Structures
1.
Amino acid sequence: MLRYSIKGVEDVFLIGTLTGMRPAEIFHMLVSWVDFRQNKIFVQASLCPHCRGGKWVPKTGHYRGIDIAPDLLPILRRLARKKADTARVSRISCTKERP
Ligand SMILES: [Zn+2]
């Protein structure tokens, strides 16, 4: 159990370092955001039971594409493996956010 949570933190840290994504973006990241063909992550709104109104919306308010660095590719492939498009990538979920 502990091993899993440490691994989850490590993944979030690595994704943050390699993409410049904000923690909130990573916590809300869905498998469907990752486009392995275009090699990009598309940050977009996602449903979230912890966020106000049941929905998380990116701060910038619009869709943005982030290039996937070569070092990040195996991590994302591992995290996305055997998951539905609507599943979250990160094991760490959003805690209540400030309005
Ligand atoms: Zn949320």
2.
Amino acid sequence: MKFNRTIPGFCFLILVFGFITCDFDEEQDDDAEPIYSVLTLVLNHSAVNLRFGKSETLIPELKGPGSENINLGSVSWATSNSAVVQVNQDGIITARDRYYAIPAVITASANGLTGTCIVNVVDPGVNANVGASLNIYDDFYSEKYPGYSLVWGDEFEYSGKPDISKWDYERGYVRNNELQYYREENANVSGGRLVIHGEPVSPQLRDGSRYFNYASASIHTKNKYHIHFGIIEIRARIPITSGCWPAAWTLGARYQNQVLGSLEWPAVGEVDIMEMYRSNNVPNMHANWCWRAPSGTWNPTWNAAAFPLSSIALWHGENMDQWAQKFHVWRYVWTEDWIEIWLDNVKLNDQDAMQSNPSGVTPARPFQEPHFFIMNLAMGSNGGTLPGNTDSVWPLLYEVDYVRVYQKN
Ligand SMILES: [Ca+2]
């Protein structure tokens, strides 16, 4: 994402609620038969966990008053995401995406009625080693990671400015032709949260030859705390307004670091644990890694995943605005072998931790190196067009309840 990159032209579309069960049953038990007071179209499953490549038949049935006397008629089928789960006109669904998938919603329509089934694609063979060793799939909200201890973090249970023993600031203009001027006053701690607020400013702020109509903040841990394997948890509530670009991410600790020896992006490695911005005015959640491409000092190779926020909200049965009103947990699980990015209890993307840069480039393996952590609210650029200055949406708030880092004992 960062550094004027070109957005990768592909989006992995994805899943994984199924991992939270130990035996990976392919079907969930539906609830006991409810009483239907009105004519209703129901399917034989309201939710299915389906293994990659497998199929299941959905059977529609009318329920409710007089249903026994009504012919169902022809049924038309649709899937919310054909990249994840396909459905044919006989109601047979097939799981198509291997490792990840946002749950797909299958809809049957007949007689002016619709029935739905939520389908999660599961594949317990993929990355099961990580899940088994960390035991994190059984209870997502458990704060206990067997064999791990909390080693660093900020609960933001104080008031004032972010703790300077942990955080530093980016200032002024930094990158990507973004429209905001970064300054300390736009990052504050209150109510148990870090609050980064983005806002229009007048008169303009100036950094060299650049002038800025907006102000925001970016805080980071460079030379304060460097993460080297472990689990990062971030609980946050993010703005999704057009034009905003909230992010929680890492860079190799030697990035332009006068203390450790200055290396450049993307060779140092970048991890986008959380990034939300619009593509074609559709809000997308991104989960990415990048490192250096085979040629060109500044050229990245991306392992990128993007998800329409509307689909993510659907995991919770919500629309985007409802989703954005709540806090959510991003989790970065980084072992010496493998790395995963999770949002709530769904894996968004994963990466081989041994990934190499091209021969002769330092560092040889960017995800074997310590990284520092960054949280910022960018505006414009990839974020798209901002609302007018008099819009009631201001200020844009990026609120962080906590950041926690766990490491193996
Ligand atoms: Ca807190």
